[in-house]
Amino acid sequence: MRIIPFENQYRDDMIFMVLEAKNALGCIPRLNEDLLNIQANYLDQGDMFWLALDENDRVIGCIGYNSIENTAEARMHRLYVKCTLKRQGIGSALLETAEKHIKAQGKTAALVHLGEEEYYFESRHFYPKHGYI
Prior knowledge:
The chain is an alpha+beta fold. It contains four helices and five strands, in the order E-H-H-E-E-E-H-E-H.
């Protein structure tokens, strides 16, 4: 596995992976609109978005963040891992990549949204395991 900054050539594969991940959680697989244009919603804002790729150059995970205006905080978004590859360290590696970058940007806090308990039960276990409260 390798983690790279977002490249538009992987956009459709990323979208498919996210929809597949949501479906596996029992959610209606709707796409968050920010994922349709990573360039405008993350990169052009001075923020970042990363992809995890497997040995076949397929997207197996993603994460991004947006800075919170007039603060030293950032909000992390869209941490997804391919549903068949969970619990193999991919999510942790993506989170660590984002945290290191956020810290290097001088941010002092990273916020996460846990989602609806009914569907995003995994995030309610994942983030506290990594020190989030």
